[in-house]
Amino acid sequence: MAMTGMDGSRIKNFVESDRTFNAYVDTKFNALDTDHDGSLTQSELKPMVQSLGDALGLPPIGSSAETDHIYQEVFSEFSKGAAVSKDVFGRVLKDILLGLADGLERDPISVIQFDGTRLREYASSPQYEVEALSVFTRLDVKQDGRLPASRLLDALPSISVIKGMPPADDPKIRGLVHYALRAARVDSRKNLDQMQFVDTLRKFLLSMADGLKTHPMKVAHSEKLYDGESIKKLLKNEEELRKALDETWRRMPKDNRYKASKDYLRIGVDEMGPAAGLPPVGSVEEVDDVLQQIFEKFNLDDGESISQEDFEKCMMEVLGSLMLQLEGKPISIKSSKIVDE
């Protein structure tokens, strides 16, 4: 099982090479401009956005919340006008790619080649039998010591990517699962006792390993721990904190009194996210829930207009509270998706 890392450096090198990037823009634009009128309609742009990851070896949609959020931004950036010129196409594409690169620098993604080797090793190990017995006990809710063979599939989510199992919730694994069920001669109508379950599941996994040997799969895997450490570093670095606060305030919509509504505080958190090591607002539900609790605690959704000084005080309250919450109860996010060849 081979593994390669994706940290955004390849994308940045590509974009920063004017000759290579401009040639790509010309080629891509001309290919998409099917009616050759020198501009792209929304229907002409859609295939480009969908294939953006494959074209440059980027992580696929669904690989992580971080990159999914940026992909969603792609559609909105390109949909601002009825048609897009080549200059606008190149500019927006560059912004998108640099955004993806920044996201990958914060949350690198590993692309793993699954060839069945690791899964075969796991299914043949003493560790497998202990864990399979534990899975049987968990699934045997009736506690009668028997399970239908169809429940084998319910065991797959408990076998991690690290053990050689492609993500069980990815629809692209269905063909492999059906092959393995046939190869292992699993009769879904048969009831299995504890040891029969362990042995049948092992045969099933070994058959999956055989299928992966013949038809390997690539999986994009990411892991991110939000434990407050990045926020703590930012709060201790006065220069970086001052820079982030000033830039965030500059971007906030203001009234004629040069005040901003508290309604924009969430936008402020989003703006400071990269500096504080936080995901985009709306991309990780668990982090959003903690933020909501903080906003309710400090009554930050009342729409009151506040000065820059008060805005910064509110931002510090949010970041400080979020840091403490994450230190006490870190949030771990793991994501795995099969990559199209």
Automatic annotation (TrEMBL):
Protein name (database record): EF-hand domain-containing protein
SUPFAM superfamilies: EF-hand
Top-level division of the source organism's lineage: Eukaryota
Domain EF-hand: 20-55, 286-321
PROSITE patterns from the UniProt entry: EF_HAND_1, EF_HAND_2
Keyword Cell inner membrane: no
UniProt keyword terms in alphabetical order: Calcium
GO molecular function terms noted in the UniProt entry: calcium ion binding
